[in-house]
Design a protein that fits this description.
The protein is an alpha/beta fold. It is built from ten helices and seven strands. The chain has a seven-stranded mixed sheet, sandwiched between helices. Strand 1, helix 3 and strand 2 form a beta-alpha-beta unit. Helix 1 runs parallel beside helix 3, helix 5 crosses helix 8 and helix 6 crosses helix 10. It is elongated and about 70 Å long.
Length: 331
């Protein structure tokens, strides 16, 4: 996915970045923000690629390449120390951390020239309130996600996602400078999902069934499971397009599917899949249930996963990622 995104970003920076509009003063650096950066290697590789592509674009116009300043943003709980410790020696940019939610303003007006976010916008700002309301039709009893849930639960998740994207776009439109671009990579599902099918949501549903098994064994309370919902939403290309167009602040310059659901990279080893889901959920589960249940929960999950022929068949995998390039409509 990184390589596929690299090719597209290079193409779009070459075609669409308005270097003549950036109006950089002699001493002003070109500013890039990575929103929801986490602390892994992927964010560093993505930033290096973006900088190289921008340098080539600027130099192709016969201009002198400016200095670069990169802002790495994530929640205050992010391990910024690990991120900064892994920054390459001799890098050609100045780095700074910006803690806080990207659903709010983070930067001064028109201060950013390129905004990037990868695999972060599917994380909701909060669990939809309606799925926790025991008196309402969207109460998500016995489940931890909207996958396999009634339509009222799905709608509550969609409404929260749409609200979050709207807040994100409203904040970014104030921060992006004239001529600038915003590139987003968002985990998603195809517009049409075939059956049988496996998505990340299907695996969350399986984890939910494991928690319910533990409730029946008396290890956790059923009420505790009912009160736990995973704040992840997987949109579709059509749905995302409607949300962005409904916001009205940005034009969609390009929208692509990065990894075809029939040709994605499958984790063939059971242990890999278990560790992948555990890495996604462990902090949330520990915060809600405590650390004592973690090992047993994922032992049960591994057993159920091993017994499923659907989960082991790559033909049933349906998860994708959407690349979308946005430009301020006023630019």
């Amino acid at each position: 996915m990184i390589e596929a995104a690299k090719v597209i970003i290079n193409e779009e920076i070459t075609r669409k970045l308005g270097v003549e509009k950036l109006s950089l003063a002699t001493s002003e650096p070109l500013k890039i923000a990575d929103l929801g950066c986490s602390c892994g290697l992927n964010t560093i590789l993505a930033i290096q690629n973006i900088i190289e592509a921008i340098k080539c674009k600027i130099q192709s116009h016969g201009l002198t390449s400016p200095e670069f300043q990169v802002f790495f943003n994530d929640q205050v709980t992010n391990d910024f120390n690990s991120l900064f410790a892994s920054l390459p020696v001799g890098r050609k940019y100045y780095a700074a951390g910006v803690p806080g939610s990207f659903h709010d303003r983070l930067f001064p007006k028109a201060s950013l020239h390129f905004i990037f976010s990868s695999c972060a916008l599917n994380i909701l700002s909060k669990v939809p309130e309606m799925v926790l309301d025991k008196t309402g039709p969207a109460w998500n009893k016995g489940r931890i996600h909207y996958t396999g849930a009634p339509k009222e639960v799905c709608k509550a998740y969609l409404d929260q996602f749409a609200k979050d994207i709207d807040s994100f776009l409203n904040a970014r439109v104030k921060e992006l400078s004239p001529g600038g671009l915003m590139a987003l990579i968002i985990p998603a599902l195809p517009d049409v999902v075939s059956h049988p099918q496996v998505t990340i949501g299907s695996e969350l549903e399986l984890v939910g069934s494991c928690l319910m098994d533990m409730a029946k064994m008396g290890i956790v309370s059923e009420a505790k499971v009912d009160a736990f919902n995973v704040p992840l939403y997987f949109t579709s290309p059509k749905e995302l397009q409607q949300i962005i167009e409904g916001n009205g602040c940005f034009s969609i310059e390009r929208m692509d599917i990065l990894n075809n659901p029939k040709h994605h990279i499958v984790m063939p080893q059971l242990g890999q899949r278990v560790q992948y889901i555990r890495a996604i959920l462990e902090m949330l589960i520990v915060k809600h249930f405590g650390a004592d249940i973690i090992d047993q929960l994922f032992e049960i999950y591994a057993r159920k996963l091993s017994e499923s022929t659907i989960f082991s068949n790559s033909e049933y995998q349906q998860s994708i990622a959407i690349f979308v390039l946005l430009k301020h409509k006023a630019n």
